[in-house]
Design goal:
Elements: E1 3-5, H1 11-22, E2 27-31, H2 34-44, E3 50-54, H3 63-67, E4 72-75, H4 89-109, E5 113-116, H5 121-124
Parallel strand pairs: 1-2, 1-4, 2-3, 4-5
Length: 136
């Protein structure tokens, strides 16, 4: 049973990939660039059973290939701004749109199970002023 883990170069994604591989599952993961693919392979010791697809949550490209032949999807990636976001929409919109891309691709490919996790942004920023994101 091949499992797609989105965001294999992120902390949570990398841990999920490693754990699934240790349990003997074939794993496909997504990264935003070929350079990140090389870094993921190197960090994991280039294990058998791992395939990597370039797919960015901000683009439709790559998601059909990412989910093709997968029995399950763990969607743990989330686009996250480098600095503190000024508006909630700067975090929520891209995360929502990326999640919808993954869910639609999984649905269209007939994936049996999809698990979606949350983001640090859900708890990492408070709201001092309505319409802005700030540390609590």
């Amino acid at each position: 049973m091949t499992v797609l883990v989105t965001g294999g170069s992120g902390s949570l994604g990398a841990h999920c990939v490693a754990r699934l591989l240790r349990r003997g599952h074939p794993v496909r993961t997504t990264v935003r660039s070929p350079a990140r693919a090389d870094a993921v392979r190197a960090a994991l010791g280039d294990p058998a059973g791992l395939s990597i697809v370039v797919a960015d949550l901000m683009s439709d490209h790559g998601w059909d290939a990412a989910v093709d032949g997968c029995a399950a999807v763990l969607h743990v990636a989330s686009p996250f701004p480098a600095g503190e976001p000024r508006r909630a929409a700067d975090v929520i919109g891209p995360a929502r749109d990326g999640t919808l891309r993954v869910l639609r691709a999984a649905r269209d490919a007939g994936v049996g199970r999809t698990v979606v996790t949350s983001s640090f942004a859900a708890v990492g920023y408070g709201r001092r002023n309505p319409g802005t994101c700030s540390p609590a």
